[in-house]
Structures are given as structure tokens and as C-alpha cells.
Protein 1
Amino acid sequence: MKPGARCWGVIPAAGIGARMATGQPKQYLEIAGKSLLQHSLDALLAIAAVEAVVVALGAGDMWAPLLPCSRVRLTVGGARRADSVLAALRALQEIAHEDDWVLVHDAARPCLLPADGERLVAAVLTSGSGALLAEPVVDTIKRVAADGRVLGTLDRSELWRAQTPQMFRLGELAAALDRALRAGVPITDEASAMEWAGHPVAVVPGSTRNLKVTVPDDLALAAFYLGQSITG
């Protein structure tokens, strides 16, 4: 890491989480007395290297219980995740350097362990290249046609489930996202934008508990994890 380079956090939280089929955006569903977003924000702020976090909210967000403080800034996100991340990066560029590092974390990953975040930061700062938390695929994965017919079995030895945070340099990530969006490239996470732009991306093993709450059944599992006392 260059002398003086710092680490920042970004949480895109402008989505509605339609697959949860609730009357409010899923990031505001509560577990253990706090919203998913607040849990995710607290987890990111618990990483020692993170100076502050920019949260990208939907325009006219009526649910946000967050109040800006010295380590939390709010900005308006966009229609897609990549739009919201880019908006948060633009806000960061007003106060940070292009060579600073950014950790982008999902608003609906409330169970991130600080130790996993610290391990990601240590790996990136040691290598000087961006990386993401990820988990090796342990299930057998099938390719399936639209009619339900199995087309083949994938080699799972090369497959990993992407998680967040994903950590890259501020300037490089902003440029990669901007170029990809302008080119109409489908971007599902920050790593995919960096891969498309030709940057090296590594994985750092994460934890099974760092799940993304996507469907109703995930809430119970997240509540179970958040109710556990983690030591060591």
C-alpha cells in the first residue's frame, strides 16, 4: 500500500429486494433489534482499517434509520447496484485519494465476521491487488436447459461463491464501473467490473455465515448466526 493510502467502505442500499415479497425494502427488515442494513454497516465499521462508510440510498428513501455521523455518509444511489456503488465512489472521491482502498459490502449481508474482513484487508494490502471474500463451492453443480434437462456437470474445483466485502482501489474501481456501464456490460458485482477492465482479482476464503439475505428463509438463518456468541 502506498504511504498514506486509506481504506473506506461503501454499501449500496438503494434496491427494493423484490424476492423477499415484503412491503418495504429488505435491507430494513429487522433481526435481533436492528435492520439488516444496520447490522451490515456495523460489521463494516468494525474492520479496524475502515475510516468511514458511504451508504447509497434510494431517492426519497422513507425507511432509513441511519443518521450521518463522523464515520457514516449518505448519498443517493441508482436503479442498479452498479449505479449505486458508482454514486458512492463519486462521493468518496470528494474526500479520498484515487489510490485509497474501498471495501464494498452488501446491505443484506448482516453476518460478516470482523475477522473475515480483517483477513481480506491484510491479504489485499500485502499483495497490492484487489480481492473479494468468497467460499468454495461444495455442492455438485449442474448445467440445466430451460426445459429442466441436465446438460452437464461442472468442475466444482474451480468454482467459488462470491461474497462481500470486495476490496479495490477507489480510482480503478470507479473507472472500471463507469466504463462497463457505458459499454452496456452486465455487472453483477465489483469484481466482475474489475475483471472486465483487465485488473487482477483474487479470492480470500470467507465464512459460510456471511450469507446474503435474499429470500424469506434466509432471515431465520441470519437470525441464528447473529444470535451466536463468536469467540476466538
Note: Residues 60 and 76 are 9 Å apart (CA to CA).
Protein 2
Amino acid sequence: MERRQIFERRQPLPYLAYVHEAALRMRFGGVEVTRDQLKHLAERSEQDGIDVRVVPASVSGFPGAGHAVLYAEGPVAQLDTVQLDSAHGPVFTSAEAQLTKYRAHLDWMNDASLPPAASRDLILGIAREL
């Protein structure tokens, strides 16, 4: 609930999320909870500054698959930071070679993902299938 406050500010920061279709089909907490989460995700994706893009299951390969990645960028690229979630806790990196690697991953995801409206349609379609 506290993380939600970031999106409810007067001037929220822009947020771009890439989600693989397989993650949307996992039923954590049961059917109703999953359906509610998918609907909430679709609703939030209509908010200004929030862009949710789905990488469809038909796309083969996925750089960094299995890892949650947060790429925090700002006006000075040298200060960008990547946070990787692992079983042992978060790992942060800001080394230029690593940032270059993750920028390439994000470029790949951008090219492989559905546009925002098609992503929202797929999310809502999965919710209806449950």
C-alpha cells in the first residue's frame, strides 16, 4: 500500500513496466485475487505516466528472465542504478558496463513487447479467462 503512494502524488514520476505474459498467468492467492490484480494493473496502465508493456509468450527468449529488475534513471545517466531482486535480497549496480547491459535488455523488451493498448487488452483477456 505504501508503494502505491508513489503513483498518487500530484506529479508522479513516470513508470514503465515490462511484464512477461507468463507472469500474468500465474495465480498467486487464487483466482479472485489474481483477477483483481490483473484488473488493477490494467486500470493503472491507463493513468498518465504509467506505461505497462507485455512481452507475449510467443516471443522466444527473454534477457534476464527470472529476475525482477528495476532500472532507475535520471537526467544524469552516470547516476543510473539497477536493482536486481534475488532470494538473498536486493543487489544494486551502477557500473557503466552493467548499465549498458541492462539498457540493451530494456531495448530488447521494448522491441519485443506489445504496445500499451494491446498490452492492456491482453491483461484484461487473461483476467476474463480465469
Note: The chain is about 40% helix and 20% strand.
Protein 3
Amino acid sequence: MLVMFLIGTAEVVAGPMMAAMGAHFGVPAAQIAWLPASYALVYASLAPLLGPLSDRFGRKPLLVPGLIGFSAAAVLIALAPSFSSAVAAGIFGGICAAAVQPNALSIINDNVEEEAQPAATGRVFMGLTLSFVIMPVVSAVLAARVDWRAAYLLVGAAALVAAILTWRMPVRRAAVQNMGFWTTFREALTIYSVRRRLAASFLWLGLSIGVTTVLAEVLRRRFHMQTEAIGVMVGAFGLVTVIGNSLIGRTERLAGSRSRVVVGGVIATLIGCLVVGVLPPFSLPVAALAGVVWALGYGIAGPVHHSGLGQISRHVRGTITALNASLLNLGIVVVASCAGRFFDALGVEAVVGMAVLGMVSGLGLLLTIRPAPDLRASQPGALAAPPRFSRR
């Protein structure tokens, strides 16, 4: 949970401090956006390349150094003598994040019994969601009352604590895969349903998360809300997502299968995005209710989808998880880029509408996936059934 909190923090910590950071570095405040942008782009690019290394050498050998490097990157941003050196430190942080998040999620599948994995993944993802709710407030307060650099130093200290705790944490060693680098990719992508599930990750989760990153601007333009009210709405969205993370086990029991939970989550996301960002504006209470449906659907189904990907294969689990993380960040970059380019030219509805079309395509891909135990069993890196670990 702490690791996921740190991953999210790196994306939002600079937001409330852009004016103070711009004044410190002598650049326009808007240019500070290059810090989280460079972090996300490098993360999305390198995560797939680092995934096979964790399958070959284990999770902790990459996770612990990655957290130490993540800590160093935050400190380097705080101490950077120029904005260009701060961006370089942000790029280094993205490299380290690419080694951190996929391994942290893979450890869940390596060490938790199959029945409990979705709920455990949901609890871990609470850290990511809470970072979006808590860290902007913390960084704003520190920038106003202490110094903007204090926020980055705090992140660096927390990452160092996470590295120590991870190093001391007893974990089962992953099933080490001794295949070559590119062979590992080929192995992962030839397992039944992996490509469709990964494509659905980009089209549903990646694009929907991308819409949440511009949700504040969507609310401002469509509902003419003031800054404080927008802050309350976006914060409430994050808190409802956390509630959804905590309801995974109960929802799975009620639905009867994980595939139903995921399909229901996609539909809830579609409804929320349509009402909030595409259809002619409803009253604000109706939009808020749609946002609750959206946040609950995402909060419940997102971790279940992540957990299902991690269960497909024991031997190339890190590679699959890394590919998934990269595609989610790619979705964020796509929506954020389109928002910056087309919000003024085409309108909010056109950009969110294109994202919704992508989500519909993702839902279609998920609906085409059928159990194929014989095919899965024939794959050397796949599991005919989800793993059940014995003491041996």
C-alpha cells in the first residue's frame, strides 16, 4: 500500500506547488507540468522492459533498489539547481517506478492464496487512490507554510522507509524463469487471452483513468463549478473509489464470478463518463450520482482485473504485470494529450466521447474471452488453474 501511495504521489505532488516551483526555477508555472509528464512517459516506456528481469531474478532484487532510487530522485528534485536538472531527476524517478509497481503487484499473486488475491489487490490499490486525495493537500500546505521542497523530501523519506520494510518483508520467491529476454515477451503474449486482456486494460482502465486526471477541468467547463467546489467533488470521487476497493470481496460473492464483477465495473465506468462528460449536462446532483457509480465501479473492478492478469501465469507474471502498468500509463498520456490539444478546439464532450468509444471496445474484448483450460494448460508458462501454494 505504501509503494502504491508513492507511485501516485509522484504524479500529483507538484500540482498544487506549480506556482512556487516555477518562481524558484525561474520558469512559467505551466512548465512544471513537465515533471509528472516526463515521469509518466518514461514509466510507461520502460515498465515492459523491466518486467522480464523480475521474472528472471525475482521481485525484491528489483523492488528494493527501485525504491531506493525513487527516494533519491525525489531528493534530487528538491535539491536541483535548475529546472532541467529537476526534469532529469523526474525521468530517473520514472525509471525507478517502472521497476517498483509491477513487482509490488506481482508479489501479491506470488504470496496470497488465489481466493483472497482480488481483495488483497484492492487493499493495496487503496494506497494509490489515497495518494490522489491526500498528497495534493499535504503538498499545498507544505508549500504555503514551509517550502515546496519539503514535500519532495517527505516523499524521499517515505520511499526509503518503504525500501527498508520491503527488504525485511518475508516473501515467497517467484518461480524464476530462465528464458531469454525477448523469449519471455513471446511466452507472455502467446498465452490464451493475454493480448485481449491487456488491450482491454488500455481501452477501459487506461482511458478511464486518463479521464479522471482531467475530471476537474471537465467539471469546470460543463457545470461551471468554482475551484473549491471542484476540489470537493474530485476528493469525494477518490474517497468513493477507496470505498469500492474495500468492497471487492463482498461484491465478488454477490456477483458469483470475477468476470461479472469486471464487466459490471466497465459498464459503471461507461455510465459515469457518459453522464459527467458527454451527454447534455444534467443537474449537478444527477452528475454527482453518476460519479459515485463510476468511482465504485472502477474501485471494485480495477483491482479484480489486475489480479486476474497476475493469475494467468506464474512464470511470466512480472512481464504481464509490467505490460499492464505500461498500458495504463499510456492511456493517461493519450487522454491528457488529447485534452490539452482538443478541449478548446473540439470541446470536452468530443475528447471524453472518444475515450468512451475506447471503453466500449474494451468491454467488447472482455466479453469475447471464454475459458479455455486445454489451451492454457498447453502453454509452458501458463497455469491450468490458479496457483495454490503449499508450505513446500
Note: The chain has two domains: 1-176, 179-381.
Protein 4
Amino acid sequence: MTAPTTMEALLVEELPIGEEWRFEPKWDGFRCFAVRSGGEVALWSRSGKPLARYFPEVEALIAGLPGGDLTLDGELIIETPDGLSFDALSQRLHPAESRIRKLAAETPALFMAFDLLSEGKDDLSALPLAKRRVRLEKLVGKAKAQGLLLSPQTGEIAQAKDWLERSGGALDGVVAKRADEPYRAGERAMLKIKRHRSADCVVGGYRTETKGNGVASLLLGLYADDGLLHHVGFCSSFKAAERRAWAEELKPLEGGEGFTGNRPDKASRWSSERTVQWTPLKPSLVVEVLYDQVTAGRFRHGTRLLRRRPDKRPNQCRCEQLRHPLTPVELAELLTRF
């Protein structure tokens, strides 16, 4: 069984206008194809890597759906009391099967379906989205399977704007698709819109370039209710001259304690010895950075420096800035179960 080719999304600044557009939340999970063919089930990542061994409960879910062969496009998500957890998904990518089985029982993954590409002997990919959506709704409604969710869809731009306003945590933005178009595999035929936010952070340390003496990244921190400065991410979008200038500016701040809470030197299977090395600083410099996504109280991706904030005291930079914009109750309303 070979992995299908995904239809990708093009990042744009604004929601498109027109009756032909349909909008869906962009979920904070793993994009996944679920394929059942000849009684066998496969789960594929967007890059074509098999996922079934990491999510055995989803494999069983797809195997138990009514009907014959099918191909679903969707998102793997894990719901926790605090909302969706990308970290919980990442923990599933573990080499030990016993560990995976334990996590699958404790925090089962859900399959958020947003497209149906084949059903039985019918190849639906050439149909317009509006017709594929009708078939998908019938399939999910008939299945009544716990763990299978139907991603909300709307043609109302006001609703799409509301989802966009609430993005940054459980939602990663909004996806726009044309209702009159087929599934254009391998093309950036969808649009994705994200809302970027800014946060004031303390520079608690830095990492140097692999070659040279310039600053490779600023390490960012925020104060929590426990009074400790916790590492929450980094900023590395600098030109060569800026890296050298940062090295000179930060030198007088060296010798400080840096982060007193969570630190950036915790090793993991994704980090090398080089990535855990850093220089702590006195927590006195405040910068404003632009970010797009928060996971477990940390910036998911690297941030972009907007400006220095000499008008802000370090202890004014609080973790509250990264609070989840979508409450568990509001999230539950979006997680449509049949």
C-alpha cells in the first residue's frame, strides 16, 4: 500500500472573499491519511511516513468503520483537560511498543476528518469539495464511532474570523478551500491563514554560532507565578552584522544566573550536544517578539524580533501572555462528535 499525495496549503495574509470559499479550523495536530484497502489499514503522515504503529487505537478505529475501502484526509489530535496537546502527540513517536501502548490507553488520539477521497469503489478525488463533504458527513454520521470527529466547515467569513481570532493554541489558524474544486493532490491549492501575536520576553541567555563568535539565537524567558524565569523559546532571525552586534551588547550581561525555572539545556533525542550549550545572562534585557503558535506554554517555532523594550521591567514579562485563547469548553463545542 502506497501513501497518497496530499493537497497542500499556501500561506496568505488575509481570508479570501467569495461565495465559493469554505473555511475550516486548522488543527494543532499531525496531518494524516487513513487508508483502508482490502481489509488492511494504513496511516500515513504528510511526508509519506507510516504512523500506524504509533497510533494503534486510530488504526483500530479505521478498521472498525462500516463499509469497505476508504481514504480519509484528516488530522490526528489528542485532547487533554487543558486543550489539545501537540506534546502528547510527539511523545507517541517512541521506539518502544510498550510505551506506545501505555500512552494510547492513557491519552488516546482522535482522528479529525476533513476530506473523503475514496469510498468503496468510488474515487471521489475528482468531485468538487462540496460533494465530497456530503459523502464525508454521511460516512461520519453513519459510523457513530468514538474517536472519529468531523472538522467543522463554514461558508461564513464571520465564523472564520472568529476561529482565526481564537487561534494560537488548539487552533493553528484557518484553512480556506474552494467548494467547486477537486482534490488537487501535490498542489498548494488550499489557503492557510495564521494570526501572529507578539510577546514581551526576557533574554535569559544566548547560543553562539557554530563557526564564529556571533550570536546564533537569543533564548527567551517569561516569569511564572512561582517567581521563576522559565525558558519559552528562541529568536534567531538575524543578519551576520546583527549577530556580531548582539555579541557585543550581551557581553556585559554575562555571568548572571539566566533561567531559574525550566532551562534550555535539557537534552532530548532530537537535540545534539551542541544545541544544549548556552551562555546565561543577567535577566535585564526585554525584547518584543512575533510568534505564531504556543504548545505547552512555549513557542512552537522560532520567533521574530520586533524591537527592544527598555520601557518594560523584566518581572513584567509574564507567562500569562501565552495563555490558551480557546477555553476547554469552547474547544469542546468545536470537537463535533457523532
Note: Confidence is low (pLDDT under 50) at residues 267-274.
